[in-house]
Amino acid sequence: MLEKLKRVPLFVPLISIFFVLHGVLENFGFIPFQDALVLLCAYIGLTLLLGGISWLLLRDKHRAAILAAAFMAFFFFYEAFIQVMTKHFPHRFFTGNSFLLLAGLLALIGVFIWLKKTKRRFPQLYLFLNTTLLVYILVDAGWLIGKLLYPPVNPLSVYSLEKGDTTTPCATCAKPNVYFLLFDEYASSLSLKEQFNYDNSCLDSFLIKQGFHINKQSRANYNLTPFSIASVLNMSYIEGLKDPGRIMSQDYTNTYHLIRNSKVISLFSREGYEVKNYSIFDLAGQPTKAWQSFLPLKTRLITARTLAERLNRHSTSLLVRYLGVKYFVVREYMKYYTGNEEFLKAVASEADQKTSRPRFVYAHFMMPHFPYLFDSSGNRRSDQQIYEEKFTNPATSYLNYLPYTNKRLAALVLHIRQNDSNAVILLCGDHGYRGWTNKQPIRFQFQNLNAVYFPDHDYSRWDDKVSFVNQFRIVFNQLFDTKYPLVKDSAIALKEE
């Protein structure tokens, strides 16, 4: 066995196995086995392809295996490399993609030249790589089995409500259908006026005419979508974030757990509601039907750390920007449009149905969030315009997308009001507009659209300054006569690593 470990390049497939297994372990509970298996096969296939190319260059299988493994290590652990450099060399020059890519490529070229010149077989290196990866895989497999037998506790928590919650289901309450319609990055009219002198009174007038109450000074509690949704769906602030200024992929994973097992979903279920999920997040027993692009969910929780995904998120290379690749890349954006259309139709269909059980319908629309697919007249914008805005997120395009968003929003609200007249409608944005390149005051990132409709038009509980964390506390108090106290309104600025 020892001799085999010195001669057989098991580390070529083992590096892929370790990377995927470790990703599944770190993101326990979110990556289905079949998805992980497909990803593993793809990575092993990529490794074998690189191994074949390496053999053509070196004409020796032993040295080709080392070169292929070096390339895959750089591919898999590029994000980890950045974190190490950030820790020990905090200057931005040493942690930028330009420097790190150049350093990595020079290192790989150095390895290639060294392997090209030498005639050695490296039995000790084979032994080290094979043994190390086998040990790591066995350890991770053991931890994974342990988690399957004894599921871990989420390091993030929203326990403040749980500790004092002694409420019971309301047997005499009317229990109307509740529609939670969330339009991503929809800023409040007050914020639009103050920040851009943009008049969004047409939407406000429409909502008031329909009997809505507008919380004019509403604020989200977090400026990143998953954290804002985790907070509103648990009616509590998120505890346990180590560094709000350096949000990591693991923080996202833990936040998705909070969303999936949220208190709001649990309470609606306890009141006898059927939960309908037309959002971009998984809910307990209700997986998302959305195409997930910007969220690192399922296997994206693993792939988000690779070189390819890092370049996909941050690269502005000549290849992408000027040689036509953008016309293929931008087509991916149309999946946002498809998702929005499917959810709009699904929610409208819910309003048409008459069922014995009340329903809580959560729909999450990716508008007016980037990409800005249509102009103010509803015309499809050019691929080139949309792609270039990936790097700038201009406020002008955001503002021009609002009339189109308002038109679709108003049509949906009218359909619900006409076909499900006794329903409660919560119309919200998860946070305000986040400029990527303009230096906006941070407060604007929290000022979100927030309008509510109750059939009895009783809005005595709704303060114009209510923040998102109290949204469903007020809803439950009003609908089911619970006595949830309101918590202090605060805004927590988060920044991705």
From TrEMBL:
Keywords associated with the record: Membrane, Transmembrane, Transmembrane helix
Every Sulfatase N-terminal domain range: 336-435
Transmembrane parts of this sequence: 7-25, 37-58, 65-86, 98-115, 127-150
Superkingdom: Bacteria
Matches recorded under Pfam families: Sulfatase
Protein name: Sulfatase N-terminal domain-containing protein
Organism: Puia dinghuensis
